[in-house]
Amino acid sequence: MREKLRSLVAEMVRGGVPLEMACREFERLFIQEVLAAHEGNHSAAARELGIHRNTLSKKLEAPPSRLRRVSLAS
């Protein structure tokens, strides 16, 4: 898994993705996966993430990053 992540990070760096944008996108996707694993239960997902459910809701309300505009080679 670490090698896959390293490869993705290298691709993002080559594509000019800023660190802040990469971190926001990673966090958003991670949260969405945990939320899906808990079938949308915000309280359970927040517990697993170690954050308050209100913090989870705020993070989900934040506008998505514009990472999709950066074209990364497939």
Please give a quick description of this structure.
This protein has 74 residues and is mainly alpha-helical.
Describe the structure using short key phrases.
mainly alpha, 4 helices, DNA binding HTH domain-containing protein, Homeodomain-like_sf, Arc Repressor Mutant, subunit A, HTH_Fis
> Uncertain regions: pLDDT < 50 for 5+ in a row?
none
CATH class of the domain at 18-64: Mainly Alpha
Shape: globular
- Percent of residues in helices comes to 55-70%
The averaged pLDDT comes out at 88
CATH architecture descriptor text of the domain at 18-64: Orthogonal Bundle
What does this structure look like?
This protein has 4 helices and no strands. By secondary structure, the chain is mainly alpha-helical. It has a domain at 18-64: Orthogonal Bundle (Arc Repressor Mutant, subunit A), CATH 1.10.10. Helix 2 packs across helix 3 (42-49). The longest helix is centred in the middle third of the chain and has 19 residues, at 19-37.
Question: Can you lay out the helices and strands and say which pair or pack?
Answer:
Blueprint: H1 2-14, H2 19-37, H3 42-49, H4 53-61
Helix pairs in contact: 2-3, 3-4
